[in-house]
Amino acid sequence: MSKFHLEGSSVLITGASAGIGREFARQLAGRASSLVLVARRRERQEELRDELTKANPNLNVHIRETDLSDDRAVIELFDSLERENLSIDLLINNAGLGDLGPFATSELQRVKEMLAVNVTALTLLTRLLLPGMIARKRGAILNVSSSAGFLPLAGFAVYAATKAYVTSFSEAIRAELRGTGVTVTTLCPGPVHTEFAETAHRQVAGAPRTVPGISHVSAQEVVRVGLAAVAADRALAIPGFVMKLGMALVRITPTSILRLAARPSSKQL
Cα–Cα distances in Å, from 135 out to 87, 145, 151, 182, 216? Predict the structure, then answer.
């Protein structure tokens, strides 16, 4: 088992301007030596940088205004790190897009962006940064997947499928990297109170904006669990007792029963 020490690490966080990504930056600010914040909204990145450096004067914070739905921008992001000799020890692939509603009426552009951000950008960035970690015999990758990736979800068809990819991909490269000094952890949260639900939900009159319930976990708890899993070299982390129990049941339930359970939710969309 390869333990990764968060203290003094150099961290790159995608989707860092809000929600879980912003919380990762806040919880790592007192432990990491440098943070690279990657997001599309520069104003929010600057606000977060000022907040973090005010509380942690020795912390180096770098901003990368990047549209991860453009694979050329992902490559340029990596090239900028190379030019500035910024070696990344911990890659947190957090950025993700969602879409709630029937696939047949989904917007093609939204579908393309989900595939690009959730799958392509995560894969490319991992591929670009991984050789350096292997060469230094030190590194960790935390891929933020979702509990939605454990089963097909009507109304979340593309999103759930992309997260199934993230979970499978992470498990596979974790096996490949055994003995290299590089670890891979998959973080699979359930519902979290962030802006994600707002952006994923289509603008439909009368549609609920959030899905309240005991399965919700705070962004602070999700990040705490994720970082603890990285430090302990755990393959999988599911925040929250309710989600942990629920996903354990899902994984042992026959697919035929899961199909029956999914039918009512699809009729309500």
Answer: 11, 26, 36, 10, 40
